[in-house]
Amino acid sequence: AQSVSQHNHHVILSEAASLELGCNYSYGGTVNLFWYVQYPGQHLQLLLKYFSGDPLVKGIKGFEAEFIKSKFSFNLRKPSVQWSDTAEYFCAVRNTGGFKTIFGAGTRLFVKA
Amino acid sequence: DTEVTQTPKHLVMGMTNKKSLKCEQHMGHRAMYWYKQKAKKPPELMFVYSYEKLSINESVPSRFSPECPNSSLLNLHLHALQPEDSALYLCASSQASGSGTGELFFGEGSRLTVL
C-alpha cells in the first residue's frame, strides 16, 4: 500500500532562515509527487509537482523540491523563508495514471518575523 | 479564490438529520473527489468519481452517500451521522486519469458539526 512519511510535524524558523522539509514515500510503481500548502484560513493549493523529467522542480513563491528516486524522497526546500510562508505543508503521492492521492501527516511551519 | 465551490461552508446537524454537501467546478475536469479532514490531520480520501461514475470508495460507511449528477457537480448526502463524523469535508477535482499530472484543485471545504 502507498504511504507518505513527513519527518517534521512542527518547524519554527526565523525570517531569512533556510527551510528543508523531508518527505519519503512507499510505493512500488511509478508515481507523481506533490507538495500542497494550506495557508491559515485558506484552501489547500498546489505548491509544486513532479511527474517526469528534471528531478529538481520549482514551484511558486521560491520553493523547490528534489525527487531522488533511489531514496524514495521528495524533499521541499526554500533558501530564505518569509513570515508569509507560515502554513501547513503536505507531501502527497499519486500512482501515475491512477486517482488515489495519499497525503503525508503534514508539517506546520511557523516563521517568526 | 478557488475554482471549486463548496456549499454550505458550515453545517450543524443532529444525528437523525438528512443533509447534503454540494460541490461545483467549471474547469472541465472529469474526476471529482471527496476528502475528509479532521483537525491537525491530513486529508483522507473518501470517494472518487471519474466521468460521473464511482471509481473509488475507500470503505466509507453507508451513512455517506455520494452522487455525481453531471461532470460539474458532486454531492455528498449525509444521513444518521455520528459525532465522530464532525470534520472538514473537502471537494477536489482533477483531469481524468491518464491525462495531466493528477494535480488536485480543492474547494474551501464544508465544516460539518454533528451534535
Q: How many beta-strand segments of chain A? A: 12
C-alpha end-to-end distance of chain B: 30 Å
Question: Care to count the β-strands of chain B?
Answer: 11
The greatest interface here is: A-B, 23 and 27 residues
Structural class of chain A: mainly beta
Distance between the termini of chain A: 41 Å
Mean pLDDT over the residues of chain B? 93
Short description:
The complex is a heterodimer of chains A (113) and B (115). With 113 residues, chain A is an all-beta fold. Chain A is 0% helix and 55% strand.
Structure write-up:
The complex is a heterodimer of chains A (113) and B (115). Chain A is mainly β. Chain A has strands at 3-6, 10-14, 19-21, 23-26, 31-38, 45-50, 56-58, 64-68, 73-78, 87-95, 101-103, 107-112. In chain A, a hairpin with a 5-residue loop joins strand 10 (87-95) and strand 11. The radius of gyration of chain A is 13 Å and the shape is globular. The model of chain A has no long low-confidence stretch (mean pLDDT 93). By secondary structure, chain B is mainly β. Helices cover 0% and strands 56% of the residues of chain B. In chain B, strands 2, 4, 5, 6, 9, 10 and 11 form a seven-stranded mixed beta sheet that branches. In chain B, strands 1-3-8-7 form a four-stranded antiparallel beta sheet, with no helix packed on it. Chain B is globular, with a radius of gyration of 13 Å. Classes of the chains: A mainly beta (113), B mainly beta (115).
